[in-house]
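Let's practice the habit of predicting before peeking. Look at the sequence and jot down your guess about where helices and strands might fall. Then scroll down.
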Amino acid sequence: MDLVAIEPEPRKRRHCAECRQGPLRFHLLEFNAVICLDCADLAHLVYLPRGNAALTRRAREASSLWAVVIRHNRRRKRYERQGLLVESPALARAEAACLADADARARRRARDAARRAAEDVRFTAALTAEILRLFPSCPPPRAQAIATHTSQRGSGRVGRSAAGRSLAEDAVTAAVRAAVRHEDTAYDALLMSGVPRTTARTRVTPATDAVLTTWQAEP
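Done guessing? Here is the structure:
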């Protein structure tokens, strides 16, 4: 089980329950009591922020003692990983290793990016074809635009879901419906005027259905 250190919000920094030191940048919880890194025997560790996966992995592997640093995200109502506390010599070795093979990793990232780009092109073409199969009267440029938008990598949209990637009919239809709702109805204007999302969707459903019915007809 990983050791976990907490990085509190600046206005909520705590004092150690044992030595009263504080306010603390990092602390641990032991039996619901705030413990500073000194009292937890972790003060010799240095902070490595997240962001460099190779450096993080190597530093963790080289460090005989390390702790995960987390911070509470109030908006998402959950704790999120911020980085690691690792031994200073381990971090130095990890940094040297990353410098030594930086060129090779850069080339690999370029190859991976090219591969992902080619996969995205193929998937967008397949999604466009499926949209046109389900909605044969949809203008082809519009079908391609919908496919490109909904399949954008990292977007979290339906096209990136498991159902979307498998071109499930419900997922493809949901993507087309969402595009029509935003682009062919007053939905966005209703949201901007303060109408609740569910109410706005209900109001534009007839207009959305009308467009979809037209697109489903054989040309």
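How did you do? Residues 102-134 form the longest helix (33 residues).
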